Amino acid sequence: MSSIGSIGSRLRDRAGAHSSLGDRVMYALCATGGLIAAAVIAEMIYQVVHGAGPAISRDGLAFVLHSRWNPFFNRFGGGQGLYGTLVSSAIALVLATPLGISIGLYLGVMASPRVRAVVGPLVEMLAAVPSVIVGFWGVIVLAPFVAHHVEPFLHGALGFIPIFGTPQTTGLSLFTAGLTLTLMVLPIIAALSRDLFLTVPRELTDGAAALGATRWEVIRGVVLPTTAAGVAAAVVLGLGRALGEAIAVLQVIGGGHGISRNLFLPSDALAPRIAQEFLSPEGQEIPALFYLALILLVIELVISVVARRIAGRFSVHRTVTT
Amino acid sequence: MALSASALRDRAPRTAGTPLRPSGNLRRRMALSRALEAVATAAALFAVALLIDVAVTVITNGAPAISFAFLTQSANGLSGGGIANALLGTVVMVVFGAAIAIPVGILVGLFLTEVAGPRSRLAHLLEVVLDMLQGVPTVVVGIVVFGLIVVPQQKETGFAGAIALSIIMLPLIARASQQVLAVVPPSFRQAADALGVERWRTVIGVILPAAAGGILTGAILAVARAAGETAPLLLVDSLYHPNAIQLQPFGNGVPSVPMFIYTTYDLPSVSGITLAWGAALVLLTGILVANVGARLMLSRTRRRMGL
To answer: Which of B136, B193, B283 sits opposite A8 (nearest CB)?
Structure first.
């Protein structure tokens, strides 16, 4: 089969040397499509660097760590946004990674095909809920619940750790932002890891089972080790999603200023600040916002390359359903 | 895996007085396994419960707002009205964006599967580009389009919104097309080659029709994703007349459902919150229906391709 295919493609390649006008038009059109995609990325990098130009030449790299944001005195820094982005995404990853991999294991290894065909799409549909609705739900349902139950409980039980400080009454906090992001990252990690677990060769799992391994031992000994690289890439892609979310985080993070160890205080993050401040930018704010976008863009480009690298032989991409 | 306690028990000699049960170490191992299976099952149930909770919250809060007038009238400030203009605006921008993203996305998919071989350098590079495009946060897409279109025009327009949405859709549609085109059975191509058909005719007459269902599925899912995007519109299309129907995206701000939700839920009025929930219900219903429909279509295409 494959040899026939390779002969076919070789014949086609040879034909390509003097291919017809129609073929050449088609190749040119397809190449144009590819060029457009590449041009969009190039244009993005140019626009963001260009837009951030004044802020870059004024503050340089110090901008990244400077934590004040005061439009009236033209003092801008990305430090606080970066802190909020990293911490809220870290909360989301800490919660969504074990949960998402568990769901992936359930769907990929344990559930019957019929259950998988129903539950799998439901989990993926969680990723289809628009972020403005997730944020709305976060404000109306999640934040009050967090303020009245979760935060007081954590403060009471683990209050000696500084990150679980005194809760606010609104529930709008860095912690709630992390929980909201968990909801958005969870379906990505779950669906991508499920797809990986489904690729584990049946002979390997059956072999382990035949040796007397329990289902958990099969998972720990065979399924997870063979897919570890891909699962790590899936987690990194989930991280990319969490770092870049603007609207849902904006709605639940509370818009606080300053960096605090207490997760239960309102905070701010890169993407939401861009969305928020763009509604009524003041003074030299726009270049500074472009600088924030540049930081985000650099992080995300690095993440997409890193995910591809660590995925190795696995093909792990967010698809249209995640 | 199926060869567990129950199977052993069935084969155990019945004459033995007590049924064969795992004991000691095996018992501990199986208990651990069962406990962790329960945890994984609970995690899956939790995710489904989250989806149901979000849906139920939107339905119970949004249903009171839904009426014929809500869907057919334009917004009317704080005092009520409907989302007709926002719905039409979203349709205009999404259709415009899709009209750009779908053809370009299909071309990129064709380039990856038909023009460049799977091991070609160029194809690899293009895949990296697609990964990057998909990873770019939507708010960054918004700020890029702001610099590209809004600043030169000195105006926020529905056109800028449509371009932003098309950039968001492009990598999704390209990936979906690539995946579908890659699973078109090679025999289709070989048959066309054997008849001496030119490549472009094969692509248009055989390969694209075979993949059409899958590509359409990807396009619908991408459109559903774009229809719910708020962040880019906040940056490039947030200044519009909130109460008027605006179908002309060039030179005008165009209202949209996500922006309606975002701006209305913040308003200091009870009716505003109800309107926002109503709009959320309409948006979520549309997106989930599109998702279910697209999936049904995909499974039909798969069957037709014999997968």
So the answer is: B193
8 Å CB contact of A271 and B135 = no
Distances (CA, A) of B256 to A219, B290, B291: 47, 18, 20
User: Could you tell me if A320 lies within 8 Å of chain B, comparing CB atoms?
Assistant: yes
**A134 reaches B (C-beta below 8 A):** yes
Assign domain B88-256 to a CATH class: mainly alpha
Q: Using the beta-carbon criterion (under 8 Å), do A320 and B172 form an inter-chain contact? A: yes
Strand partners, B67: none
Question: CB B48 to CB A136 under 8 A?
Answer: no
Strand partners for A251: none
* Token couple for B306: 């014999």
b/e A23-51 (16+ beta carbons within 10 angstroms → b)? beebbeebbebbbebbebbeebeebbbeb
Average confidence (pLDDT) over A223-245: 94
The band of B6, judged by pLDDT with boundaries at 50, 70 and 90, is low
Q: Are A321 and A188 in contact (CB under 8 A)?
A: no
- Please check whether residue B305 is in contact with residue B185, taking contact to mean a CB–CB distance below 8 angstroms: yes
Average pLDDT for A112-137: 93
Mean pLDDT for A131-139 is 93
pLDDT tens column, A85-118? 999 999 999 999 999 999 999 999 999 999 999 9
Q: Which of B131, B202, B265, B297 to mutate to test the interface with A (most CBs of A within 10 A)?
A: B131
Q: Which amino acid is at B134?
A: Q
> In this complex, which of A31, A133, A278 lies closest to B234 when CB atoms are compared?
A278
- Residue holding tokens 């080659």? B193
> What pLDDT, on the 0 to 100 scale, is given for residue A3?
47
Report CA Rg, chain A: 24
> What is the C-alpha to C-alpha distance for residues B212 and B202, in angstroms, rounded to an integer?
14
Query: Hey, which residues 192-231 in chain A have their CB within 8 Å of chain B?
Result: 205-206, 209-210, 214-219
Q: Please, what are the domains in chain A?
A: 59-311 (1.10.3720.10)
Of the candidates B48, B130, B265, the beta carbon closest to that of A119 is on B48
Q: From the CA of B305, how many Å to the nearest CA of chain A?
A: 18
Distance CA B243, CA B255 (A): 9
In this prediction, residue B251 carries a pLDDT of: 80
A234 touches chain B (CB under 8 A): no
pLDDT digits (tens, 9 = 90+) for A163-177: 888 888 888 999 999
State whether B280 and A133 contact (CB < 8 Å): yes
Q: Of B266, B262, B265, nearest to B274 (Cα)? A: B265
Which of A48, A128, A219 has the CB atom closest to B144's CB atom? A48
Is the CB of residue A311 less than 8 Å from the CB of residue A199?
no
Closest by CA position to A196, among listed A128, A105, A113, A126: A105
Alpha helices (runs of H) in chain A, residue ranges in sequence order: 2-17, 21-59, 62-65, 79-105, 113-128, 131-137, 143-145, 151-158, 174-198, 202-210, 215-218, 224-244, 247-253, 270-277, 285-311
pLDDT at B121 over 80: yes
Q: Is the pLDDT of residue A268 over 80?
A: yes
A19 in reach of chain B (CB within 8 A)? yes
